[in-house]
Amino acid sequence: MYNELSIMNSYIKDIARIPLLTAEEEKELAVKAASGDKAAKNKLINANLRFVINIAKQFIHRGMELEDLVSEGNVGLIIAVDHFDVNKGFRFISYAVWWIRQTILKALSEKCRPIRLPMNKADDLVRIEKARKMLGSKLSEEEEFAEVARMLELDPSYVKEMVEISREMLSLDAEITTDGAVKSFGETVEDKRYAAPEEEALNSCMKSDISKVLSSLKPNEERVLRMRYGLNGVKPMSLKEVGKHFNLTRERIRQIEQSAIKHMRVPGKLSKLSSYVA
To answer: Would the keyword ATP-binding turn up in this protein's UniProt record (predicted)?
Structure first.
């Protein structure tokens, strides 16, 4: 166990020394890689390995060791290089995130769950958990299921079923042995209050792409979405709260929100954001 940790720590230190690419360098390498230049492909892959580490850490304690999660994520990174189209106009990592997460999710769903889930259901489960975290704990469970279902356009009973499947039986107070010492499970959970540089870079790319897509909407649609989902730097607001701000009814705000979401589903706009949704 100690040797495995030592190897992993050494790997993380090694890839941290690889310099990040500028947008111009990335574009040049992507063009060369697409034309079959293996050296350019390898350089593009190596410069983004650190991001795989950061994404893999999000899936710790789901049944696979970090080393295995990173290995699966690296496969997704390689696939992303093979499929990346530099002419789409967005940074490589914003595209690669989707492939990295998909390969990790596929491995988890096939190898680790007591109840094996098809990939589409594994995807739904991740989306549901993200929506639940965004809502926080201010709602009752049934209200939460209904709101998540509305946000993701799913049936509430399906949301409830997926949450039940995902419930972990391990208590945070349960004792586990790690590095030769007995600790509570809660002590081993990563503190995510402070973002790593890699995570900040991903968030920066995501915010930039979201802003580009939102700016293509009508002004009132953009403002409604920013308020509803907390994209203006404050907590998400209810339909009633947004309606009060605009002096409109709750139903009218819902209509504007649905119209905005419909406009965002245009393939050209959706492709910019789909890489962030696992």
So the answer is: no
The whole-model pTM stands at 0.47
What is the pLDDT, as a whole number, of residue 24?
92
Determine the Cα–Cα distance for residues 226 and 204; give it in Å rounded to an integer: 17
Show me where the domains of the chain are located: 3-112, 121-172+183-188, 197-275
Considering the domain delimited by 197-275, tell me its CATH architecture: Orthogonal Bundle (1.10)
CA distances from 198 to 49, 67, 228 (A): 10, 18, 28
Question: To the nearest whole percent, how much of the chain has pLDDT over 90?
Answer: 18
36: left (phi over 0), alpha (psi -120 to 50) or beta: left
pLDDT digits (tens, 9 = 90+) for 205-234: 667 777 777 888 888 988 888 888 887 666
CATH of domain 3-112: 1.20.120.1810
Which residue in 193, 203, 135 sits closest to 163, CA to CA? 135
